[in-house]
Amino acid sequence: MGGQLILVATPIGNLADISERAIETLQSVEAILCEDTRVTAKLLMSRNISTPTRTLHDHNEQDRTPFLIEKLSAGARYAVVSDAGTPLVSDPGYRLVRAAIAAGIPVTAIPGPNAVITALTLSGLPPLPFMFLGFPAPRSEARKTGFATLRAAEQAGVRSTLIWYEAPHRLVETLEDLIEVFGPDREAAVGRELTKRFEEMVRGTLTEVLAHFQTTAPRGEITLLIGPSAEDDSGADDLDTHLRQALESHSVKDAATLVAGIVKLPKRTVYARALELSKEMKN
């Protein structure tokens, strides 16, 4: 059948969630490429799978990819797994998949658990559209800049449930930064230890969710969600109104600088919108 790369979703917590197809695939491939062999070993032992494992993580993926592509081209069948959930979703494997596609090697997937979808369906927040954004920046200043860019997109008319993964020791600070940018009353939810014995889903406003975790230290795997902006959110109109007025008497650069101070958004974000409006006004 020739070489093949297979992306295999594994449980996000409860080992019973692995599918029959995933088990059969992990038993039949030449090797399993995994983020941490120690973590994957627990899953393999629970299903009596003895297939050899090899590491594939952020620090070695670029170096290992040429060798793996050579083996795949020669007929090897490899499975890719992450420590938990669906590979490539905030996990290694993207470089290898891109290289395999470019080399004409068949790539397929065995679907299964994913913390983003699980948390979204349990959150009570609108499921469509949603945007998954990986992990927020670890430092507050960079984190708030990223959040402000998303808020600017909302002010330009984008409405979506937003989802992140977060480390438990940063959750409280991240919630505080979200409140500063999106406001205290935005609907939110935090999923913790999903599918495990102590699964928890905390729902409410950002203020309410923050209060819960200020008194109850978060532990385990965290998925953080906030709902879309309100339908009557006038942010988009406000931003465009301020920019149109400023553009009547200022250059694009000066108008962006002036309005960025008014709406408290990153200058480059406001500048991009000012450039669009300037072109529209000229036409």
From TrEMBL:
Domain Tetrapyrrole methylase as annotated: residue spans: 5-209
GO molecular function, one term: methyltransferase activity
Keywords: Cytoplasm, Methyltransferase, rRNA processing, S-adenosyl-L-methionine, Transferase
Cited PROSITE patterns: RSMI
Location of the protein in the cell: Cytoplasm
Domain of life: Bacteria
Protein name, as recorded: Ribosomal RNA small subunit methyltransferase I
Organism field: Gluconobacter japonicus
